[in-house]
Automatic annotation (TrEMBL):
Gene3D superfamilies, sorted: Homeodomain-like, Tetracycline Repressor, domain 2
PANTHER family associated with the record: FATTY ACID METABOLISM REGULATOR PROTEIN, HTH-TYPE TRANSCRIPTIONAL REGULATOR RUTR
Molecular function in Gene Ontology: DNA-binding transcription factor activity; transcription cis-regulatory region binding
PROSITE patterns per UniProt: HTH_TETR_2
SUPFAM superfamilies: Homeodomain-like (SSF46689), Tetracyclin repressor-like, C-terminal domain (SSF48498)
Keyword Iron set for record: no
HTH tetR-type domain mapped to chain residues: 6-66
Organism: Melghirimyces thermohalophilus
Protein name as annotated: Transcriptional regulator, TetR family
Keyword presence, DNA damage: no
């Protein structure tokens, strides 16, 4: 298998995003991805074992870039509250800027086989670890309460962010996703109590 770097590899990953977003995971044929990437069908198999491998690799590449950018941005912010706001903002910004990627990550990844979802889950754990670090720092610094389970808090944060993006997609992006950052942060920090 060829090294997973270079222009052709990146072209295939980007083409896969476009094709899967347009046709759906199950209708996205490797030949369509190859055509969209301007490579021969066989070239795909130099980099990927099959379509499932393309999907897993796509998520690994895009999530890896996001985690790297988010980790760098968060390292420059001291306040855990501001870190949480920045994490939400970056999540929304990255998907608002790439509607096709948003469709793939929010809709199509969930349509895949159990084995693929398992691999996706392993990749997602890296992002969840970043969230855990923000929450733990908030508890340690006294910015967040210390009487809750970090994993439950993370599930609540990720679930809220995730559902907000999915709803935005399902409503055909009829409102600016970025306008949701502060209201969500407020609810996460202050809950429903007066």
């Amino acid at each position: 298998m060829a090294k997973r770097t270079g222009e052709k590899y990146e072209a295939i990953i980007d083409a896969a995003v476009r094709v899967i977003a347009k046709y759906g995971y199950h209708q996205a044929q490797v030949s369509r991805i190859a055509r969209e990437a301007n490579v021969a069908d066989g070239t795909i198999y130099l980099y990927f074992a099959n379509k499932d491998d393309v999907l897993i690799s796509l998520f690994n590449e895009k999530m890896g870039q996001f985690i790297s950018n988010a980790s760098k941005a968060l390292s420059e912010i001291e306040s855990p509250v501001d870190q949480l706001r920045e994490l939400i903002r970056l999540h929304f910004e990255s998907l608002a800027a790439d509607y096709q990627l948003a469709i793939v990550t929010q809709i199509e990844l969930r349509q895949s086989k159990p084995e693929v979802r398992k691999e996706i889950g392993l990749i997602l754990k890296r992002y969840l670890k970043v969230m855990d670090q923000v929450i733990e720092a908030g508890v340690e610094q006294g910015a967040f309460r210390d009487d809750f389970d970090v994993i439950t808090a993370r599930r609540m944060i990720f679930g809220t962010i995730d559902e907000t993006v999915t709803s935005w997609i399902m409503k055909d992006c009829k409102y600016p996703l970025m306008d949701q950052v502060d209201p969500i942060l407020d609810l996460l920090l202050n809950g429903f109590s007066r």
